[in-house]
Amino acid sequence: MVTAGTSDGLGLLLQGLRAQGPRGARIATENPGYPTARRVISGLGALPIQVKDGGMDPDSLMQSHEPFDAVLLTPSHQYPLGGRLPVSARLALLAWANDTGTFLIEDDYDSEFRHGPLPC
Questions:
Q1: What's the chain's Rg over C-alpha atoms?
Q2: Which domain of life is it from (predicted)?
């Protein structure tokens, strides 16, 4: 599917998730995070999770008592702080998402550029 940009694509994806159940979608976002993405999902159940050590804090996310439908991340170049989520935190998020059935949405807005060492 081709959209007019990140906001349109994200909006379509999240509307699809919202239709999955009666309570609506619960979507975790980075805090601070990309303001435009937050505006798109704010009416759909956005829940801010603090940024720590270069990206979303996995411990804060995993301590939530309510399940999430999706998590929006910018792990390779966190916006607006510019950090990189450590590999150990990425692996922990992947394992958690697999165990809980949560979708991870990566906004890799800057993938053409390298910020720091080459990826593993």
A1: 14
A2: Bacteria
Domain of 68 in residue numbering reads as 30-106
Quote the CA–CA distance of 67 and 39 in Å, as a whole number. 21
Q: Does 21 fall in a domain? A: no
Distance CA 98, CA 84 (A): 22
Cβ pair 64, 44 in contact under 8 A: no
Q: Supply the pTM of this predicted model.
A: 0.80
In a domain, 3, yes or no: no
List, for residues 55-113, the tens digit of each pLDDT value: 899 999 998 888 888 999 988 888 888 888 999 999 999 999 999 999 998 887 666 55
Is residue 15 assigned to a domain?
no
What six digits make up the tokens of 45?
């159940």
Smallest CA-to-CA distance from 47 within 36, 60, 83, 59 is with 60
Counted domains in the chain: 1
